[in-house]
Design brief:
By secondary structure, the chain is an alpha/beta fold. Helices cover 47% and strands 17% of the residues.
Length: 133
């Protein structure tokens, strides 16, 4: 039995997880990424983010650093300690714009660090597409 072209198209969509506690930004990113053809889920803190990662198995994570319950750095470290999370690309998307935060994020296993206020939604989508090539 062959899948219909529509079903096949849906199964090829990449899954993006946004882990951020800013509802406005999450909504804007979700709309932009979905318009670009991605499947999008979100979580408002690092612990919820890990739960979603291990149930959804996203193709890429957009991760804020400053969040309640579990911050992004703690989530990133725990993600990289688990076999299911070692290879998922992570783009840190934060308002922190200092060498210490950038260096620590990259050392912990993030592929890229973007400063929220310096990057448009289009810039973020471009970074996502680049990481998923």
């Amino acid at each position: 039995m062959r899948e219909s072209p529509k079903i096949m198209e849906k199964t090829k969509k990449k899954k993006i997880l946004i882990v951020d506690d800013e509802p406005f930004l999450v909504r804007a990113l979700r709309e932009k990424l979905e318009t670009e053809g991605f499947l999008v889920d979100s979580a408002a803190d690092g612990q919820a983010g890990l739960d979603v990662v291990f149930s959804l198995a996203p193709d890429l994570i957009l991760l804020d650093l400053v969040m309640p319950k579990m911050d992004g750095m703690a989530m990133l470290r725990k993600l990289r300690q688990d076999e299911r999370g070692k290879k998922i690309p992570v783009i840190v998307l934060s308002n922190l714009n200092n060498a210490k935060s950038i260096d620590a994020s990259l050392a912990a296993g993030a592929q890229k660090f973007l400063v929220k206020v310096n990057n448009s939604l289009d810039d973020i989508v471009c970074a996502v597409k680049s990481q998923l090539k």
